[in-house]
Design goal:
Elements (H helix, E strand, L loop, with lengths): L9 H19 L3 H6 L6 H13 L4 H8 L3 H13 L3 E4 L9 E4 L1 H21 L5 H22 L13
Antiparallel strand pairs: 1-2
Helix pairs in contact: 3-6, 4-5
Length: about 170
Amino acid sequence: MPGCAAEASVLEDLQEIERELLLLARHHILPTSTHKQHGRTLDRSAYLLLSRIEAEGPMTIGQLADAFALDVSTVNRQAAAMLQADLVERIPDPDGGMARKLAVTPQGLARLHADRDVVLRGLGQVLENWSAEDRRCFADLLGRFNITCERENGYPWPRPAPVADR
């Protein structure tokens, strides 16, 4: 990548990383009207919550609040909207606990996967001229950054096992 080998101070590096992370966040988190123009139907909170439940399995409101470091009342409002839209359903705790858990409905899973397909197509277009090595390096660095942040903050995201033949 151009400029990677250039000498810069730690502060300059941190300032550039902060700016680029700020700009990165705007590319994926588009206003709802723009979502629909691009074929997406879920708002950001539903996309994130459904993705987490899909990755981890049914979760209580409290577990979701902990996973995202949000107030329970915030997650409760988001969950109510997802229940109303038939994206999730309340089920008894499969582990026998007292609290009911949220599970993704078939409709919720279909909408999540449809939105994810739109996101992946968009990423494919943005990265179509990148080499396989650059894409892999970018994925590895993003993963390393996120895992470090998760470790520091105590909010790990469940990930699939690494693919051995990379």
